């Protein structure tokens, strides 16, 4: 590093775990809320819940991350004073930044799961399962969801890259000690070696996550098998 006189790799390895932890927490929040909402919206198609879910998706995909982060700090940190809004600490420190970083991805999970589930619920194999008299919960979660989850997994791998990029904004707002703040400081100091290192490490992490998603395909879809070389 030209500005701090330290090896770039050492600086990145100090900050990278915090960013991966934040992005991972954001992905868990996005999947944990977005996928169930998408399933319920598809099962209750064209009801008031479906309309509310679609409205939430529009808001989630439209609201800027920095605005969401500031509003969360104002509501839960300033007004209610129930959650910490600064730095990295216990689990409670993850709640606000994880939700702020995940709202856009959560809305994407919801919309994609809903559309995939609607397609699955209208398919022949699901109709046949219902004709056989299978339990509706079994039809939804074993037959429809298992086939609808493939595009959702693909989106999850791609969205992880978006979470890493979005971490720059959220880390600055919440003073999170990750590579996002390191990159922003490097930009202000015109420290190009650090910027190059951040881009390189982020690319490696994204490639690794997408490689893992490819292996998960075979677990969820038995039609997919990996041939031996």
Describe the global form. Answer: globular
Tell me the fraction of residues in β-strands, as a range: under 5%
Number of DSSP-assigned strands? 0
- Subunit organisation of the chains: single chain
Low-confidence stretches: none
**Which structural class best describes the helix and strand composition?**
mainly alpha
Biggest pleated sheet? none
Quickly count the helices.
8
Mean pLDDT: 82
C-alpha-based Rg, rounded: 20 Å
What string, H for helix and E for strand, traces the elements in order? HHHHHHHH
Distance between the termini: 42 Å
Give the fraction of residues assigned to helices: over 70%
Describe what you observe in this structure.
With 229 residues, the chain is mainly alpha-helical. The protein has eight helices and no strands. The longest helix has 38 residues.
Keywords:
229 residues; mainly alpha; 79% helix; globular
Layout of strands and helices, then pairs:
Blueprint lengths: L7 H36 L4 H15 L2 H15 L12 H30 L2 H8 L4 H38 L5 H11 L2 H29 L9
Helix pairs in contact: 1-2, 1-4, 1-6, 1-8, 2-4, 3-4, 3-6, 4-6, 5-6, 6-7, 6-8, 7-8
Summarize the structure.
With 229 residues, the chain is mainly α. It is 79% helix and 0% strand.
């Amino acid at each position: 590093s030209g500005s701090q006189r330290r090896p770039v790799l050492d600086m990145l390895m100090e900050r990278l775990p915090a960013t991966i932890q934040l992005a991972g927490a954001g992905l868990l929040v996005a999947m944990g809320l977005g996928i169930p909402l998408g399933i319920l919206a598809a099962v209750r198609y064209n009801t008031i819940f479906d309309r509310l879910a679609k409205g939430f998706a529009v808001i989630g995909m439209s609201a800027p991350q920095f605005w969401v982060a500031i509003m969360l700090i104002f509501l839960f940190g300033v007004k209610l004073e129930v959650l910490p809004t600064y730095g990295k600490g216990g689990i409670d420190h993850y709640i606000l930044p994880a939700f702020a970083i995940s709202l856009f991805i959560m809305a994407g999970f919801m919309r994609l799961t809903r559309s995939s589930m609607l397609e699955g619920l209208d398919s022949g194999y699901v109709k046949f399962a219902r004709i056989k008299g299978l339990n509706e919960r079994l039809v939804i979660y074993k037959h429809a969801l298992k086939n609808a989850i493939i595009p959702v997994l693909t989106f999850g791998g791609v969205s992880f890259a978006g979470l890493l990029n979005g971490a720059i904004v959220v880390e600055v707002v919440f003073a999170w000690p990750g590579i996002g703040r390191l990159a922003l400081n490097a930009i202000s100091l015109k420290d190009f070696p650090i910027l190059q290192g951040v881009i390189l490490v982020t690319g490696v992490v994204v490639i690794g996550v997408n490689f893992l998603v490819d292996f998960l395909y075979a677990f969820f879809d038995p039609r997919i098998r990996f041939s031996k070389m």
